Amino acid sequence: MRKIYLYARFQRFWHWMQALIIFGLLFTGMEVHGLFKIMGYEAAFHVHNFFAVALLSFIVLAFFWYITTGDFRQYLTEGNLVEKILMQARYYVIGIFRNEPHPFKKNEISRLNPLQRITYLGLTLVGLPLQIIFGFIYYYFNELVDLGMNPAWLEPVAHIHTLLAYLLIGFVVMHVYMTTTGHTVTSNIKAMITGWEEVED
Ligand code: HEM
């Protein structure tokens, strides 16, 4: 085994801030949606909007970091992406329960397997931006109606925003489970805290 440095300080900070903010958004969003009453609708609404702006700021900052450091290359895949994703999916469904080795070995220049790459890329480039855009449309709905938007769109916008929130909860549940499938149950989480991980030589 050897120790490798996988996550720079900024990346760990960004990851945990993002997680915290998303938990905050889900929690306050549920209260705004009327699922429970803890801080009250008004407060939940304001905290939700504050977290949304915080998330957007962190995403912009993270984009800047990933591009200027060149770390975005970790998300690109060479060769047949579909074949690689299927290999990784087969491992999660069958191989992992037969104690087979991970199909893709981790190292400093390739820390994410193809399924992680496509999932995180989809979340960061499609899922979260869509959710933020629908959130902003919802927030500025009256102003947009004044500018000519059809008021009947309020309901679909609200439904899409809620649907995306449920999908995000699905992502978090799967994501946390997947992080326990490293070479030990906690090795991936430790790496996201300390930056370092032990991998096979
Ligand atoms: C709540 C929203 C969350 C989002 C949006 C999120 C997003 C991400 C992203 C984009 C990465 C890839 C970072 C990179 O390598 O460039 C990542 C990695 C990781 N995340 Fe999260 N995360 C969330 C919550 C969590 C939670 C709650 C945990 C653990 C309890 C966690 C543990 C990890 C770990 C261990 C990794 C390392 C790579 C892996 O095992 O996939 N995350 N996360």
TrEMBL record:
Residue spans crossing the bilayer: 12-30, 50-67, 118-140, 160-178
Domain Cytochrome b561 bacterial/Ni-hydrogenase per the UniProt entry, residue ranges: 7-195
Keywords: Cell membrane, Electron transport, Heme, Iron, Membrane, Metal-binding, Transmembrane, Transmembrane helix, Transport
Pfam name, any one: Ni_hydr_CYTB
Gene Ontology biological process terms from the UniProt entry: respiratory electron transport chain
GO-annotated cellular components: plasma membrane
Coiled coil location: none
Cell compartments where the protein resides: Cell membrane
Membrane topology: Multi-pass membrane protein
InterPro entries named among the record's database cross-references: Cyt_b561_bac/Ni-Hgenase, Di-haem_cyt_TM, Hydrogenase_cytochrome, Ni-dep_Hydgase_cyt-B
Origin: domain of life: Bacteria
GO MF terms, alphabetically ordered: electron transfer activity; heme binding; iron ion binding
Recorded family membership: Belongs to the HupC/HyaC/HydC family.
Protein name: Cytochrome B
Species of origin: Pelodictyon luteolum
Lineage: Bacteria, Pseudomonadati, Chlorobiota, Chlorobiia, Chlorobiales
